[in-house]
Each structure stands twice: as C-alpha cells, then as structure tokens.
Amino acid sequence: xxxxxxxxxxxxSLRGVWDEVEVDELDHxxxxxxxxxxxxxxxxxxxxxxxxxxxxxxxxxxxxxxxxEDAAQEWLTARFGARVGWLAGAHVEAKQxxxxxxxxxxxxxxxxxxxxxxxxxxxxxxxxRTGHVWWPDALRLRRYDxxxxxxxxxxxSIDEALDVARRVARR
Length: 171
Ligand SMILES: [Fe+2]
Prior knowledge:
- This is HD family phosphohydrolase.
- InterPro entries: OP_Dioxygenase (IPR052567).
- This protein is mainly alpha-helical.
- The protein has a single domain (about 5-170), classed as Hypothetical protein af1432 (Orthogonal Bundle).
- It has 10 helices and no strands.
- The two termini are about 20 Å apart.
- It binds fe (ii) ion.
- Fe (ii) ion binds near residues 28, 52, 53 and 145.
C-alpha cells in the first residue's frame, strides 16, 4: 500500500476513537492540523500536528505496552522522515515541559490531559528533547494539540490533510 493510502486508512481508523471527551480522534487530528496551518507552520509541522496521535489508532498501536507517542514516532519516521516522527513523538514531553514552566498552560489543560499527565510522569522542566533544534516546533505542536478539542471547530478536510502528506512524502 502506498504511504498516502496508508495515511488515509489510519485517519479513517481514528473516527470514533475517543481519548478526549469533546471530540473523537479524527476531529482532534484535523483541528490540530488546521491550527498549525493557520499559524503558518511548514508542511512537516502541519502533518505532525495532524498525525501526532496516530498511536491511538488500532491500525498503528498493536502492542499495548508501547506508549502512543512512541508508536506514532516510529510509524511516522518510517513514512515521512525523522522530523515529522520526532515532533509527534515529543508531544507528551512538550506537555510535561509546558505544565512545569507555564502556569496559564497548566491551568488550561483539559481534564483528560491532567489525568494522563499524572501517569506520564507529571510536569517536568527538562527532558532528553529540550534544547533540540526541533524543540520549539514541538512546543508549537503541543499548543495546536491542546486547542484542538472543540466540537465543531474549524478543521482541515481529510483531502487537505492528505495533500500535505503528499507534499511531505515527495521530498
Ligand atoms: Fe492530541
């Protein structure tokens, strides 16, 4: 199967998967992509924003002992390169970092994010990824992620998301 067909299949598999309370994982993905595009993110960052939670897809996460962000990083790196994978793989550490360093951020986290933060290790001001050249973009992604939980909010269409995937895959 080609990478774009696989991506379409994975996106479709997120319909009806509920991690957050307000929107399912497909709406969450497409809203995150829209937030990134509206913030003039480059194609790789937009794509990583759309696909950061593919580790919640039953197609991608086949081993429940693997953390969803690690499953996403592995799946995306193989298909779209190291940066897309790394940015998605960083989205939990980016939450831990922002929760430790930005009071307003910590206060605004959704109840689901607050409870997952606890078992993800809590707020942490440093990690193996802070200081990396891609870290600022990981923090941008995390803010698109947290904003992408609003029923009925503006979102990319699946076709728009796949167009971004096509451009990244062509590189
Ligand atoms: Fe997310």
